[in-house]
Every structure is written in structure tokens, then in C-alpha cells.
Sequence to fold (192 residues):
Amino acid sequence: MKTCVYTAGRAEKIIYDGDTKMIAQNINPYLVDAPNVFIENRKKPLFDVPELTDGNRPTDGGNLIIEGADYEIFIANEPNALPYVRKYMMAREFLHNEDRYCLWLVGCPPSELKKMPLVLKRIEAVRQFRQASTKKATQNFAETPAIFQEIRHPSSSYAVIPFTSSKRRKYIPIGFLTNTTVAGGWGLVYSA
Fold:
């Protein structure tokens, strides 16, 4: 374990690493003998490239999401929903190649919704979940419970990068998805 000693007014700056003692010119915030270099937070890319953005956020209490294990049963019981079901991917699904789905009802006409009682039940549960929220913005979205609260879905293929991964990886996991897959906003960022 590294420990550092610096006493104001003393000439020596010392880094201890276990039994090893090293005299340092400068002890930086990473506790190494190196210049003070700080990486600043930035919102815009350095070059003319597409910006990264969060994915889509349902804020639905899980009611617009269909877990992989439930997919076959859901479709068997609600076959009219098939055109409105898309793959849904967060970081976990991306990194571990797991299946998960969502109801993507953007543009679904009310006449079609009326033919899907299980979907209507889920939509009502979304409405109740949003109404019960302590956030005023979420309560306002109770008026549109059939769609995700935050929609940032690209119209073409896009690249995805998980928010978090593992320090054991020797690479940064990046993937490419078609717009038939919905990227979740709590796990992936994407660039169209």
C-alpha cells in the first residue's frame, strides 16, 4: 500500500510503497512522482464526430420491459403485440449477450392497442407507476404511458458503449446495433 509524506517547508517529498522508500520531486493526486495533470470534464467532442448520448429511458416500473425468459409466454398470450416488441439492451445484456425485450409502442394506433388486452394492462400499470412518482416531470408523463419517458432512438444503425465494464478487460467493449434494437438509457450510450 502506498503512503506519501509531504511536510510543508521541508525539502523532501517521500513516497512509501511497502518497505520501499522513494524521494519524489512532486507527489501528484495519483500518489506517484509525476506532474499534476487533471482530465477535465467535457460535454462536446474534441473533433467533428457524432456526440455520445444516453439511450432511451422507460420510467415504467418495469411494465414496458419483457424479460428474455418471459418473451415466448408473452407472445403466445398476446400475438398481436409481436410487431411492437423490440430487443432491449442495457450494459448487462450487451456485455453478456443476454436477451431482453421491450414494448416499443411509438406510432402504435389506438385501434391496435385495443386488440391487445395484456399490453393495455401493462400500459395502465405504467400510468399508475408514473402518477405515484414524487417527481412532477414523471407524473406529467403519466398522460403518455404507452411510450418511454425519454426517447432518443436513432433512425439508423448506431454504436454503443456501456457506461461501466470491468477493469479486467483488455479492451473497451463497443458494439454496433441496428435501429430495431432499443438501447436503454441507464446502461449504454450511443452515437448514430
